[in-house]
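2-polyprenyl-3-methyl-5-hydroxy-6-metoxy-1, 4-benzoquinol methylase: structure, please.
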Amino acid sequence: MPDQQNVLLKLTTSLNNYNIPYFFINETALWLQGVSPTPNSISISIQWDGFEYVIDEFNKIFGQAIPEHSVEKSVASYEINEQQVIVECTYNTVIRTNPYLVEVPFQDHTVPCLSLYYYQKLPEWESLVNSHLSKMQNKVTEQNEKSWNQHTYEALLNRFGTPEEAATKLKTNPLARLKSLMPFLPQLEGKKVANLMGSHGMKATAMSLLGAKATVIDFSFENERYAKEIAEQCNVDLSYYVSDILKLDEKHDGSYDIVVMELGILHYFLDLQPLFEVVQRLLTPGGAFIVQDFHPISTKLITSKGKKHKVDGNYFDPSIHQRGVAYEKHLENHTEENIVLQRKWTLGEVITGIANENLMIKQVVEEPNSKLHDRGIPKLFTIQAVKQ
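Here you go.
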């Protein structure tokens, strides 16, 4: 085992025994999260009111270090197995409640780190983290694309019935399929609409029935098959591009009056900025962007089981998680191929990401759950923005 890993294991073993909060920071944190190569030194931040105790104990094990003190922090340096180890504390901060604290797999354990999303906000690290997230997004999209092309058509049949049956319901009442979106959509007649990650295409087909020229952009061939069959049964001309949104051809730029994203899409992106850059590119000047998704209070903070609710999540958790695909419950057989990776975002992160792309936010609406026992818990949020 390389010396850095041996040293890190020694440090975590000792610190865990002291029961004092800590996390790895700077190059060490980014190395542990796969962002950067092996660091020249290992850096740890200790809970400030336990710093002196840790230094006393480390001095017994690793040799004498004399801390240096400044207005904001204290720092001590050790040489362990020819590796420099920097131990510091920042005064009057609480490590356990830091919103960027994450647990990262290491050997057979996990170790606490300051998240890469923290360093993404710092100019000296921004480019490195963005490059890593871009490479990781390619892998995530590849895995998600694979998952969404495994038995998706079968799941759609089990959930919505045959394309003929689904089309009959759509033709009878297209507004029903768009009920939650209609208050935010401009007049659809004659408008060009892009439904990003539009899945089975039923919302796009409903918009087509109401006079729009709708296009779905999605990476699932099986979704495309079901959507095109429904559109054919509805006698509408639905365009469907099978593509990774982030690699969409430039021929689409400035082509759409309205861009719509809805329900369970944002969490497939490890970085929102490249996504909203694409949205901005697709829109015509003055074009409208409507994004509607599940409220993070319900997806990140509260666990619900029937009528019982438990606040046991971390609203600010920036971790990337494995989840089953959305249609998994409609499949008879569950496999590893039905696993996708997700990053759940706070409402503030979504709003900021949109505003950063020269998209003027006109509305942010939070919708309560309609069930009586869920009263007071937000279910959905909708953001309406306009390209300036």
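Notes: The first strand starts at residue 22 and ends at 24.
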